[in-house]
Amino acid sequence: MKKITNNKSLFIRCDEKTYELAHKLAESESRSLNKQIIYMINKTAKENNIKLDEKASGLGLLVQAKKQES
C-alpha cells in the first residue's frame, strides 16, 4: 500500500450491524478497520476502472470512469 503523504479524513456513519461486519472483515484480513476500508475503496475503484484525473489537484480532483462494454 502506498504511503499517504497528504492525509484527508473520511467519516462513515453506519448501523451497529454494519460496524460489526466491518470489524470482522478487517480482522479476517489482518488489517485495521481504517486500512481495510482504504483497501476496499482502492480495490473496488480498480475493479471498476475508476481513476483520478492526474491533472487535477486538491479539492478539484475529478473522478472519471470508463464506460464498460456490455
What would you note in describing this structure?
The chain has one domain. Helices cover 40% and strands 9% of the residues. It is built from two helices and two strands. The chain has a two-stranded antiparallel sheet. The longest helix is centred in the middle third of the chain and has 15 residues, at 33-47. The termini are far apart. Residues 59-70 have low confidence and may be disordered.
Name some characteristics of this structure.
70 residues; mainly alpha; globular; two-stranded antiparallel ribbon
Helix content: 40-55%
Write the H/E string, N to C. Answer: HHEE
How many structural domains can be distinguished in the coordinates?
1
Largest sheet at a glance? 2 strands, antiparallel
For the largest sheet, list the strands in their spatial order. 1-2
User: Given the structure, what is the number of helices?
Assistant: 2
Indicate the structural class.
Answer: mainly alpha
What share of the residues does DSSP label as strand, in percent? Answer: 5-15%
Low-confidence stretches: 59-70
Number of strands: 2
Radius of gyration: 15 Å
Shape: globular
